[in-house]
Amino acid sequence: MPGRVRQWPWDEYPQKNINDEDFRKAKEAIIREHGAEALRKSWIEVCGRLSLITEDISVNGNKLIPIVPADIVLEEGFSPEVEQRIRETGCVVVRGVIPEPTARQLYSDLKQYVSDNRSQIKGWPEESPSMLQLYNSPTQHAVRSHPNQLRLQCLLNELWHDHTERTSSEPLVYLDGVRDRPPQQPFLGLGPHVDAGSLSRWLDPAYRRSYSAVFGGKSGEWDCWDLSVRQDAVQDLFKAPAHSSVFRAFQGWTALTPSGPHRGSILLYPNVSAVMAYVLLRPFFCPPEDPMEVMDASKWSFDETGCSFPGTMKDQSQRLSRTSHPHLRLEECLVHVPEIMPGDTVWWHSDVCHAVDPEHEGSENASVVYVAACPTTPTTKEYVKQQLADTLAGFQPKDANGDLKESMLAGYQGHASLSEEARKAFGYYL
Ligand SMILES: [Fe+2]
């Protein structure tokens, strides 16, 4: 099937009770606050909605992911049609954010920088490092600080709203790593998952309050673009490298090389609100014993006392699988983003399920710089202030958890070439 993985390589997460106080507390608090009836109402509603959504995705695949040229978006903003599709799918490809020759040059600079410092730069997975623990290379800074990049992030942030007015769409830069993945190596590490925490979504009071419509029987009314409460959510209640400290309105990557389906790309599930609502409600229900009845949501029983959170691990992103989350029809609905060229960008809402392409059958490396869109929120401001202090002292950011002093690397340039606008986004005036 075009646009899908050919052979499902990822783990399944079985229904099994977890003997852990934090999991129990999270579930109890939500049942106490909203009650079984409201949870069941949302469950039936969401599963019904998903049957239409999955049908649409299974027919249309990655054609549902909106694709727009950067020059038009930067000039005119997102058209109402594109905006509507982003709101439904939670994702967008914006082409040519960095001019292609510039992006190719930046890739060549990165290769040189990494080769000059190879022995000091760590990567993951250990046997074939492709996710490089590098945060302050000249290439990454050039990509993050490009004026098109900052303008686009502002437009993406503006898709969210906040009636408390404690936030703004002015972008702040979150330093993340870079990937340079050689061809012909499978990568099975990051199957279907959602970032921005795992158990925190249920356990942290502010986080779960941002989903109260879902838990409260009104999942169809949940506004997944509302930052009013979400800005206070603690995503990293359980500190681990998988959890970022800051809120990313959109996660994203900027390509430095070409990639495509089965060639070291990324897979997205082009729906945000129904998928996340389903994931949130899933621990409250047990599947029927008869496998033939699994897709009938009304046959699932409310699980008041048991405690099964399939795919939820404190130190990992929220995982999803075919058997634990059957109504998502992951095999048909997790689709590759289309062909990508150097300088193109891919963006996905912080609640969108995604996976790293398990295959790379191309002939060139597939390289991307991770660049997210982060609005200015009180929590992010604090983090970015500290991040800037760390960079100026030569160190990696706190979330990186690394001990490499990057300022000692050959060719290190720090913030030498940042424009005024970029310095603002890097936190100089906070
Ligand atoms: Fe991810």
Please, could you describe this protein's structure?
By secondary structure, the protein is α+β, with helices and mostly antiparallel strands. It has a single domain, classed as Sandwich (Jelly Rolls), CATH 2.60.120.330. It is 33% helix and 13% strand. It has 14 helices and 17 strands. The chain has helices at residues 21-60, 70-76, 80-89, 100-116, 138-145, 147-157, 200-203, 205-209, 212-215, 227-230, 273-281, 330-333, 378-392, 420-425, and strands at 67-69, 91-95, 123-124, 131-132, 168-172, 178-181, 193-194, 250-255, 266-268, 285-286, 301-302, 318-319, 335-336, 345-349, 354-356, 366-370, 374-376. Strand 3 and strand 4 (131-132) form a beta hairpin. The chain is globular and about 60 Å long. Fe (ii) ion binds next to loops.
Q: How far apart are the termini? A: 49 Å
Are any ligands bound, and if so which?
fe (ii) ion
CATH class: Mainly Beta
Query: What is the helix tally?
Result: 14
Q: What's the domain count?
A: 1
Question: What is the radius of gyration computed over CA atoms, rounded to a whole number of angstroms?
Answer: 21 Å
Number of strand elements: 17
What's the name of the CATH homologous superfamily? B-lactam Antibiotic, Isopenicillin N Synthase, Chain
What is the arithmetic mean of pLDDT?
95
Order of strands, widest sheet: 1-2-14-8-16-6-4-3
Structural class: alpha+beta
Question: What overall geometry do the principal axes of the alpha carbons give?
Answer: globular
How many strands, which pairing sense, and closed or not: the largest β-sheet? 8 strands, mixed
CATH topology: Jelly Rolls
CATH architecture descriptor text: Sandwich
User: Low-confidence spans: pLDDT under 50, at least 5 residues?
Assistant: none
Task: Please give the share of residues in helix.
Answer: 25-40%
Pfam family, one: Gig2-like
Organism: Aureobasidium pullulans
Protein name: DUF1479-domain-containing protein
InterPro entries: Gig2-like, IPNS-like_sf
